[in-house]
Write the C-alpha cells for this entry.
Amino acid sequence: MWTGCDILQAIARNGGLVHFSKIRWQRSASAAGLAFGAPSCRTVSARRVFSTAKRAKRGRGESGGTTSSRSSAAVGAAAAATPPTQAQLRTLFMHSAVPMVGFGIMDNFVMISAGDLIDNTLGVKFGLATLTAAACGQVVSDVCGVCFGGTVEAIATRMGLPAPDLTLRQRGLRACKLAATSGAASGVVVGCILGMATLLFMDTTHAEREKKQREMDTLFATILDDGHNIVGAAKCSLFFVDEEEGELWTKVATDNDGEIKTGKLITIPITTGIVGEVVRTKRLLNVADTSKNTNYYKGVDLAMKTTTRNMLAVPVMSRSDEKGDGKVIAVIEMMNKPEGFDENDEKLVGMLAAHVGAFMGQVSEGRAGRHEYGEAVPLRRLPTPKN
C-alpha cells in the first residue's frame, strides 16, 4: 500500500512525469495516513496530485531563494557597515597626497619659469602684459602635465608607499572619499608652495624694468629726433631728475650737427648748471648767451664733445599733488638756435614738456628707469670746468 508521501517522492524522482489516470484515496482507520483503498473511497484526480507537488516544489524553491538572498544581503550589509580604521584612513591620505606633491611642484615650476621667459622676451618685444605671459606659461605647464603625468605617478609608485587595504565598498564610504580628496588637495598645495621656491632665484622685476626702458627709449628717440626741429635748434637733450640720488641724468643728446649721440649715461648733481636752476625754481630759462650766465656748466659739453652758445630749458612737471604743487621730473633743453629763442619757442617747448609729463605719468617720480641704462659717467667726479 502506497502512502501519499510515497507518491510525492516518486513524482519528485521522475521529474514530475509520473502519470496516473485516476487514483483512489481512502483514509485509514488508523492515523497512519492516506493509502490506496477500495473504489468506494473519495476519488482524487492526478491533476490535484501534480498541483500539490508543484506547490510544494515552488514553496521549497522560494524558501531556498529567499534564504540565499537574505544571506547575501546580510553579508553585504556586514561588509558595508565595516568602517575603515584610522590607520587605513592615514594610509589612504598619504597615498593620495604624495603623487599630487609632485604634480604641484612640476606645475608651478614650469608655469613660473615659462611665464618669466615669455615675459622677458616676447613680453618686452611686443609689450605684452605680465598676466598674458603668465597665462602662456600656464598653457606650457598644462601641456607638461599631460605629457609627463605618467612619469610623476611612476616615480611616486617607486617610492614604495604602502597601499591602503580597503575593499571597494569601503572606498565608497564618505570617510574614505574625504580622506582621499583632502590628501590630494593637501599634496597640491604643498607641491605648489615648493614649486614657488624658484622665485627666490629669479629677478621678478627685470621684465617690468625692460618694458619701462623701452618706453623711455621711445621717449628719448621722439624728442631727440624731432624735438629740436620744432623750434629750429641745432641740438637738444632730456635730463631726468633723481631726487633719491640727488642727481640729474641723461642718456643721449644731439650734437651740433643734429646727430644723436648715445654714449654712456651722464649724471650731474641736481643743483648744477642751468638744468639745476630750472629744477630749483620750477620755471623755464631762456639763456641768450651761455658764456655770460653764471649757472652754465661746461661739464656736459666736455663729456659730449659739443659747444653750447644759447639755450632754452623748460621743466617737465609731474601731475599735481594734493597741495596743487607738481614736481619737476625732467628738463628739456634746446640749444644753439642761430637767431636765439623767442616767446613762440617757449610756448612750443612748453607744450612738448606737457606731453612728455603726461607720457611719464605712469613712471615713478624721481626714478624714471635711471639704473636701467648701465654704468653712469658722474660728471661731479670730473674736474669742474672754468666758466
In short: The mean pLDDT is 75.
